[in-house]
Design goal:
globular, about 240 residues, mainly alpha
Length: about 240
């Protein structure tokens, strides 16, 4: 398990193009959204948007792990992996942990842009907790991306991942506040994994722990996406 994890981390870090563009896009969107019109930080918008865009970038990085898995499947890497002693659960967990490596740079760059460019100020403990919670909280989306990658073709995985990412960004309130959405969509958005994921950060910036609802909803999505990834890994054997 350890050797497999180290191998996957090395393979992930070799993709320098993804690391550059995967971190650059959320930063650019954050700076554009928060500086249009040259206004100040009205009602903490620059802080809230910083968390939302860091979460959005983390989602993109996490789910992109599935595109790599789909490519591995087409290159028969998964077929080689199946002859090892790794169980489906361990194989999925190992790939999910290695995929989380790409999430951290995205979070850090958006937070640095908030602090250095937009002048966001918080206590040192809030910055540290914010990074840790967003990093750990992205795991359900890594599992969702893996499930798509094990089940779909590389092209299909890319399309489905982008659709999920856009939907999460809008309905989850990562791009703009949920209050701007219609009432029924606003109620739905509060139970999406993206909104509860970002709430980990919003609660931290407000100086308190995430609520029980946030933790319960995220845990439920984690179990659902985890089961989806393991089942997809097992079924992918039929298409190898």
């Amino acid at each position: 398990m350890y050797r497999y994890l180290v191998l996957e981390v090395r393979r992930t870090l070799r993709d320098s193009t993804f690391l550059i563009f995967g971190t650059g896009m959320p930063v650019m969107m954050y700076l554009i959204f928060t500086n249009i019109g040259g206004g100040g930080d009205v009602d903490g918008w620059k802080t809230a948007s910083m968390v939302g865009m860091a979460a959005y970038g983390a989602l993109g990085s996490a789910m992109s792990t599935g595109t790599g898995v789909a490519s591995d499947k087409s290159l028969a890497w998964l077929q080689q992996l199946r002859i090892t002693p790794l169980s489906p659960t361990r194989a999925v967990v190992g790939r999910a942990i290695s995929g989380s490596v790409t999430v951290l740079p995205t979070i850090l760059t958006v937070l640095l842009a908030g602090a250095l460019v937009n002048g966001v100020r918080m206590a040192a403990w809030q910055w540290a907790v914010l990074v840790l919670l967003l990093w750990a909280g992205a795991l359900p989306f890594t599992l969702l991306g893996l499930g798509n990658g094990y089940r779909l073709t590389p092209q299909g995985t890319g399309v489905v991942n982008v659709a999920c990412l856009m939907g999460f960004g809008v309905v989850g309130g990562l791009w703009f506040p949920l209050d701007l959405l219609p009432g029924w969509l606003r109620s739905l958005g509060r139970f999406t994994p993206a909104n509860r994921f970002a709430d980990l950060g919003w609660a931290t910036t407000e100086g308190h722990a995430p609520g029980a609802t946030t933790l319960a909803v995220l845990s439920a999505w984690l179990l659902l996406f985890g089961a989806y990834a393991v089942i997809s890994y097992r079924r992918s054997a039929r298409t190898l």
